[in-house]
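Practice record 12: protein with guanosine-5'-diphosphate.
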Amino acid sequence: MSTLAVLGCMWGDEAKAKVVDYLGGLADYVVRFQGGSNAGHTIHHAGQKYVFHSVPSGILYPNSKCVIAAGVVIDPVSLLNEMDALTKLGIQFEGRLFIDERAGLVLPLHQELDSSAEAGLGANKIGTTQRGIGPAYADHTARVGLRMADLLYPDWLSSRLEALYKHHKRELDPALVQKLLQIKTRLEPFICKADNLLQEAYLEDKYILFEGAQGSLLDVSFGTYPYVTSSNTISGGICTGCGIPPRMINKILGVYKAYSTRVGEGPFPTELFDATGDRIRIQGNEFGSTTGRPRRIGWFDAFAAAYTARINGLDSIAVTLLDVLSGLPELKICTGYWIGERKLTAFPSHPMELQAVVPEYLSLPGWDADLSDCRKLNKLPKAARDYLEVIQDLVERPLELVSVGPDRSQTIAIKS
Ligand code: GDP
Ligand code: IMO
Ligand code: MG
């Protein structure tokens, strides 16, 4: 098996980075294929906490090379800040980081547009991370955006920036051109054609790990539109994001939290507004890694999870943060949605429908034991094993990993 995709399959923050870190030790390449600095990927290792936004999490492994592929939008200022902070922690980038020349650029203009669009939407706002992601992808699709390779052609860069600012009816500050040219000096050694790199690596039988950002229910086409991000987060996005064919994706692992969370606006059928939700938020430290916002909490939604398992073509699943549920007397899992007398047969695509659904729940007994030291499935309390089995059955995908704490070691691998 030479390539593996690790994808968030709900509304983001499923602990993808923890899973990438656990599985990434042998990876020759770790690849981000979509999204941008809206991602906040946390890894706890050897007493140190790392939060990655644009840099692939594999950078912690000295033998892994990291690729930021064409489908990513890069805020070069934030990327350089992130690289500087990691360099201070002893991480080397030379010869290890590869940035596709086609990746889009996120400029300060895009952050301003993100904030003003949100303000303009008022009560209809999306609740974005305000990192400029939506406007940067919009400009890319409108063919007025700038890409990494544009940094290499100063005259072209200036005229494209002029045109972009004119498109948005704004005045270009010439200092921005100078700033981007300075940025170019630092980023130029990393710019490449990542499709070639990955295709060659694949032919050499290298182990390539694709690190998803956000989650399937935030996918711009198949998520809970319009309350989504602006990229294709599902497995199909790997091909368009990297410039590689579907057959190069050998295995797809979907990551689900043992409960649900969501940051930002939009319908959330299993959301908890009570003390149980507050307890899970505190216990799971559910505050955004990028914005610090408290995450909304809900029960595990197996109806939504089965939908995302299908659209991604998952081979197996990882269930994370199981330890957070210890101490709750009763746990619920959503098994289906009803609207009035009608039981839905497919996940709703319209927010009016999704916000109208009444979840049907299966109630399961909880457990009290602390799970954080468990390293084998049979060491988990029976109620926890039953809970996992129900998830596996409802999502119809084999369980491969269980995470019981933030550290790399706090992981249970399940032999099939
Ligand atoms: P990502 O965006 O999907 O990589 O996830 P985030 O990093 O945004 O959020 C996951 C959070 O849960 C991080 O703070 C992790 O350190 C933490 N975490 C990961 N796995 C576990 C786990 O099994 N148990 C607990 N308690 N925390 C975990
Ligand atoms: P990781 O990779 C959770 C959410 C925002 C908002 C919507 C649109 O850490 O899982 P955007 O800034 O992308 O235009 O915001 O998407 N969102 C995330 N939620 N985890 C993320 O990334 C997210 N990235 C964006 O909160 O609801
Ligand atoms: Mg996150």
